[in-house]
Design brief:
The chain is built from six helices and two strands, in the order βαααβααα. With about 150 residues, the chain is mainly alpha-helical. The protein has one domain. Strands 1-2 form a two-stranded antiparallel sheet.
Amino acid sequence: MSWIAFTAADVAKRLNSTEVAAMRPLGNDPLPDIVTQVIREVRSRVRAFQTNKLGAEGTIPDELLLAAINRARYELITVLPVATLMTEDRRQTNKDALAALDRVADGRMLIEQPASADVSAENVPTRAGGAQVVRSSTHEQFTRGNMRRL
């Protein structure tokens, strides 16, 4: 497993015929924007766990491909003009995808680290206003919430 490019084609392969037909009358394809949004979401969740490194810009861990596809399908369905596409199965696969991303963010799901880490500004944690977050402590403050991980 490795870090891979996630594209609209990955999502399109998983769309059913009803979903494809519902996209035709829109005129513009919302899928590329949705894929970009999902890539940012996945990379953000990966970056949330302190020991994770990011792969090259625009890539996601192979282990999260299915979660990314399911998130993109769900987001696509929310913009399509056909209400019957939002089934309980779609809701559940979206919940499962979000749960997988949450497990990565809090370190309960390990991902393969990239061969070479992305050293772009995207990899540097920042606060609102662009101030960089500096962590200088070498010990972790124990709270009720993080004691559950032990």
